[in-house]
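Final report, section 2: Outcomes. Of the targets proposed, HDOD domain-containing protein is the one most frequently requested by collaborating groups, and we therefore present its record in full.
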Amino acid sequence: MSGDPTVAQEQKQLLVVKQPIFDRDKSVWGYRFVVNDVMAREGVEHDGSDVELVAEQVVSMSTCGTGCPIGKKFFLSITGESPIDRSVLPENLDNCIVTMSGKAVNDAQCSHLAEAIGDGGGSLAVDYDVEGDVLESLLEKCDIVKVSMADKRPAEIVALRKKFKGFQGKLLAANIDDWETYEGARALGFKYFQGSFFGVPELKEAEGLQSTSVAKLQLLGELNNPDCGMEDLASIIASDISLSYRILQYINSASFGFRTQIKSIQQAVALLGLKELKHWATVVVMTDIDSTPKGEEVAYTALHRARFLSRFTEMSNGVSQPSESMFMLGLFSKLDALLSFPMEKALENIPLDKEIMAGLCGAANEYRGLIRMMEAVEAGNCAVASKILKRYDVNCAAMATEYMKAATWTSQQLSEMQN
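The predicted structure is given below as tokens.
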């Protein structure tokens, strides 16, 4: 069921991380793609020319499972000072935002590209964190200014917003780590938002869980109960019409490859077996908890982690848990964000391994370390991920290959669940 790596991935060992960008309604407006060439130097971002890096981003978008959905914006990053010409960019720029940061943000480089990008239907974005005189000269040429929220106090953000009062374009708040910062930037008039904030819970403990979320938590508990037998499982699934429909739809998809159509849960239990059906029913329930755009992105992250960590056991030395348990570690690592509820309370009635549960709840153990490794990879921080990978005798190149395979697999599974 895994997706095959592309030829480009095998040759370049690219690690492409997809990071969503939200609008003011918490809908996904576009995606930023962080590209690392881990073969160049393990743990260090790509150190080749900008021409190579841009070309790799374009190829990665079209060949791997992290592709940009139709109608969403694609942020193409240019960071170095080497000249880029229009021919390196995608032919169709309708949904492309060319973002310049670091040494690339200079008047000559931006002037060179701004007109060509606009003529091609694209937009130009620049980072705020450049020299003041350079930025001032570029404001009339760019459509978006990206402002990092990292290490900035509220007063600094307010002052920055005032500075751009006359700017005719849009402001993008980047590196947002929590919902408080998101709400603050939104209140100040920022239009777009990027960061890890969407993957942390908007805690609403005082309000309690909605009845639908309570029901799904109960289902998760029953599905993972070791005492749940075949008849019990068939009864549990069949009692929820929506769940029953989605599971049958998924099992009849290309991922499972059955030649004849499976028409009942009882038939699914007989063909797949108790353990397998519990496994995939849990996946369906988890991905169905939050159907908002934010929830869909969190579900993608959870399932991607699950697939990668289940494969990690075959790549590494020293992982004590079987692949099925590692799959559940990844899958449940975003349960609090899906429910907007504290992890400890969300897991109360789900019979997971005690050490895995402790890691999910923040205890400093092996499983928490693996979650930290996933967080570093998702942030595009290979240096931090590499330190954890070395404990398991796994290098970044092997990790990148499996991560990209897992991305392809996850996109395929979610697509087939939704069809």
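The radius of gyration is 23 Å.
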